[in-house]
What we know:
CATH 2.40.50, 3-stranded antiparallel beta sheet, globular, alpha+beta, 113 residues
Amino acid sequence: MNLIKYVFVVLIAMYSFNSMAGNIGFGKLVGVKVFGSDNNRMTKIFFDAGADKLDTPCLRAATITHSLHKPEEVQQMLSVALAGYMSGKRVRAYSYTDGSCEADMVSVQETYF
Length: 113
């Protein structure tokens, strides 16, 4: 009986983790803007009209709020976004929180995986 409870708890945890994450967008970028006011430092990544895997509330834009990430994480995500923008390659922005426009992962990739 304990094994069944254990398996059930693991399955619930796996389902919960998957439901708490989501894509913000996957496609080519049309712009990267860095906002630098003292109380609201953030970077916005804008996807083109042909992007897919879009989270509707985000309106084709991912946000990187600098105060929510370590400085090196912000630099890494910004560098990857700029590399994708300058090369014309497809970029994926992903959030660990479903329905959030806050990017936790940015990658340059030709196909979605």
